[in-house]
Design brief:
This protein is mainly α. The protein contains 12 helices and no strands. It has helices spanning 2-30, 42-49, 51-85, 90-98, 105-123, 131-151, 155-164, 169-180, 182-198, 201-206, 211-219, 223-257. The longest helix is centred in the N-terminal third of the chain and has 35 residues, at 51-85. The radius of gyration is 22 Å and the shape is globular.
Amino acid sequence: MRAANVVRGALWVVFGLFFLFPLYAMADFSTRNLIAGGRTGQAWANLVTDQALYQAIVVSLLLAVCTVVAMLVLLVPTMIWVRLRAPWARGLVEFLCLLPLTIPALVIVVGLRNVYLWVTYLLGDSALTLTFVYVVVVLPFAYRALDAALAAIDLQTLSEAARSLGAGWTATIMRVVVPNIWSGILSAAFISIAVVLGEYTIASLSGYETLQVQIVLIGKSDGPTSVAASLATLLFGFALLLVLSLVTRGRRRARTLKPGVTV
């Protein structure tokens, strides 16, 4: 038992060094004064003071929020309805949601170019119109998270109980089903945010300056600022995963402490 703990501890140290050393190298480079020597926080200050980079950060965050909202509005009711009313369509829905994994981003951009002519004509030439493409891109990841959460509950019994008590479909979904799949919704949302913040190909080929596009542009003239922005994006993604882990663990602990009560 003691030997197993030693091995487990050694593995944690190895994995920690493997993942943390690149982050340390990025932090070291982003705070280094390449001209005068020493340390400086100018690269991190540029995340706010550099107008183009700041605007790209705002655009990417807005894209992430819009993508998550659109994805949840589209996917959650659809998956619930398919499980309750059309189980024969589950295979088709799964196939359509996982299909973007098999299509390169370049092909998606080329295939949607004619469609986006109408989108630009109706909604204007805003970077936020990338929301429609990003919803398609995040579907495979969001579908798996929501599907696992729905498979872990007795959806048929919950919905029938709510309906028998007079709840409409909207109330059933929002007040009964959603609280029981909250961890899956958070997983889908956080994974979608990470995908949107890290996406480069579609935004670059479409001619929009999102965070990753701006990072590449800045990297040609200001390496420390580019690395600082990349590190900030990674740390933000790690923070989201940590929050997801804490929330999921808290809900499991509450469910363990209150057996028989649906959380």
